[in-house]
């Protein structure tokens, strides 16, 4: 029992540090739900996206950031997991959704265009938008520095 009492404070400290680290990184919040995120801000990062990944945690996302507003179109070449692709304008309002985009291993791959101009594109696991009950006009908040968009 004495040994447990001696190590308990250290264990609690490391648990609290781990919990803080889990919420400290880049994140987005959509419809009250927080998602850890990866930022794709360069042409190379955007081209790679979520390719070749076999799994993405339910509370994770990838946010593609562009320097301008224009119609966007994504495809799923070499992307192995179905995704919801959500398009946001410069004011971080949801303007278009492509739901349950399916993996594609060989050309020609289907494209998933936005219905209007978008500056931000958020990829989530397929089915997430439906579970959240998302509607057009929904606001997105971003936590973290996206850096220089190229």
CATH superfamily: Protein of unknown function DUF192
Query: Which residue ranges are poorly predicted, with pLDDT under 50 across at least 5 consecutive positions?
Result: 6-22
| Overall morphology | globular
Helix percentage: 10-25%
- How much of the sequence is in beta strands? 35-45%
Total number of β-strand segments? 7
Q: What is the residue-averaged pLDDT?
A: 88
By DSSP (H or I, 4+ residues per run), the number of helices equals 3
State the CATH architecture: Sandwich
Question: What's the main sheet like?
Answer: 7 strands, mixed
Report on the architecture of this protein:
The chain is 23% helix and 41% strand. The chain is an alpha+beta fold. It has a single domain, classed as Protein of unknown function DUF192 (Jelly Rolls). It has a 7-stranded mixed β-sheet with strand order 5-4-6-3-2-1-7. α2 links the parallel β2 and β3. The chain is globular and about 35 Å long. It starts with a helix and ends in a 7-residue tail after the last strand. About 11% of the residues have low confidence.
């Amino acid at each position: 029992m004495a040994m447990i009492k001696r190590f308990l404070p250290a264990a609690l400290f490391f648990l609290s540090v781990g919990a803080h680290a889990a919420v400290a990184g880049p994140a987005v919040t959509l419809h009250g739900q927080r998602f850890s995120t990866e930022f794709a801000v360069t042409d190379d990062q955007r081209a790679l996206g979520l390719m070749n990944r076999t799994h993405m945690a339910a509370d994770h996302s990838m946010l593609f950031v562009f320097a301008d507003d224009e119609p966007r179109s994504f495809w799923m070449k070499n992307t192995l997991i179905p995704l919801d692709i959500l398009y946001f304008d410069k004011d971080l309002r949801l303007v278009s959704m492509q739901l349950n985009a399916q993996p594609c291993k060989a050309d020609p791959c289907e494209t998933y265009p936005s219905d209007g101009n978008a500056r931000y594109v958020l990829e989530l696991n397929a089915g997430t938008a439906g579970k959240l009950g998302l509607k057009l006009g929904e606001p997105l908040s971003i936590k973290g520095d996206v850096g220089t968009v190229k």
